[in-house]
Amino acid sequence: MAGRIHDEDIAAVRERIRIDDVVGDFVALRNAGGGSLKGLCPFHDEKTPSFTVTPSRGFFYCFGCGEGGDVFTFLQKQQNLGFTEAVQTLADRSGIQLRITDDGTGQPPGLRKRILEANAAAEEFFRSQLGSPEAIEARRFLDQRGFDRAVALHFGLGYAPKHGRMLRQALQAQGFDDATLKAAGLIRDGGRDFFSGRLLWPIRDSGQSVLGFGARRIHDDDRLPAKYINTPETAVYKKSQVLYGLDFARQPIGKRSQAVVVEGYTDVMAAHLAGVDTAVASCGTAFGDDHARLLQRLMGTTDGLHGEVIFTFDGDKAGQNAALKVFKGDQNFIAQTYVAVEPSGLDPCDLRLEHGDAAVRELVGRRVPLYRFVMENVIKSYDLDRADGRLAALRESSDLISAIRDSSLISQYLRELAGMLGMDIEDVRHEVSRKQRGGASSSQRRPEPEESSTDDVDPAWPNPGDPALRLERDTLKLMLQYPLTFDAAWNGVVIEDFTHPGYQAVFRLIRDTPLVEGWGDALRENTSSEVLTQLLVSLLVEPLLREPDEVYSLAHSSRLRLARTVRRIAQCKSRLQRTDPVKDPTSHRSQFAELTALEMERKRLLSVSAGE
Ligand code: ZN
Questions:
Q1: Residue 572 pLDDT exceeds 90
Q2: Whole-model pTM above 0.85?
Q3: d(CA 198, CA 207)
């Protein structure tokens, strides 16, 4: 489309379209308060959402990478469109007819737009061919897998005729030139149709545009031996980034923070028909890091707490290798990755055919954490009745664990591994840290507070310079020196907010000693412990960074409570991961509720503690 669009039409489109609707096609947005929405930025990799959309103003802005603009800018960047194309796309969506003045440049419309239009026309053509006499084999294929006509229509399935030039002819008649068809991967050099004599699945993005096709061999005389072929890489079809089923699964994925990754097109169909509406599949390539990031963005998960990505793998060697590959892939992804293995080896499509819809849903419900599946497979190949077998199994599995960067995950995996091997956890921990030291420089992790048992300091005498305990120490100093900047309940601080036994003892003393004239003396009189008295005195006199007020004290107490909430979230997450939602649904549900409540508490404390 050449020319200039009338300004009034651009304004009309802007008015008719909601930016949160458009962005919502690509990013799961959650309410961030103040009339804004938040999600994971599609323009840079991030774990916590800094991408905000303000519908009332029609703007988006990312605090992480600085990208920002209006709805047109968003679509331009997200879809790699020109301004005119972005306006056109949104005009189509809102039913506004654009008036265009010819600016005499005669420039053809952008390549991406032309490819998408050609793909849409091709999809329609292929669909119309599925009812042709020649397509009987394709229809039989679907029929045998339990997919009737209505299902074929629902998923937009099509058939590419054997003839080899019919698509090109049909699309040429609609005004598409060979250059466009070639760029779309719809015809080959020499002008033959790219797909011929095959059953076709349209592969769409989450915004419903057809990006390309997947095609299955149907006829015995097909010259191409491959069972499946796909659209070659084009300006819009990048196999490392497309997922089949996303057009149906996008909203459920965002809503449930769950995605189920199956192997093939028929598995996606079967899963959706069975009620697993979050199912997707990679197309003609293994599931990779780009796919993982795409799903994370759609789930809107920030830190692996809520999201679940469930892979259905065969229990066989190929499935085990696939699981291992995912495990060694994107590290941000490990804590929320699960595996659903069907013992009979049936894929979801066959499972539905033989045992019905419920069997597919049960398969997904039986998921186990990916790391457990991987470790069990490693350990299985050793004889654990023998000491040398256990040692060898430990060596191989600790290789896997030592590659993990998240220390809170490591401690959980260590516990489980020790349980599987029937070995002492300290031996397992020792082996893993040996591996970590032997590897690259990766030993800068700070252990979780509950694990700092190697501390050689007197438990009641905390190291005053320990950065991990600084917040606890500073808060106690504030309480002791400026008690009136706190409310009567010490701003809600409790013993458990302190991790060091010495500080716990000091707080217990503070809590149990009524605030009277000469409080410092009253505190000292309330304890007979020499060590505690010394600690108390040092905290009473140690200088503060600044003159405190109520806001300053509130920020300290909130941060202290926040730290504990974060620890509790990690524990709850770990428990949740070890709870089977099928065998123990009540406990799973209540733990999930607890996690959600903790998350809300974390957010609240985060905003209070930021108000320093
Ligand atoms: Zn960004």
A1: no
A2: no
A3: 26
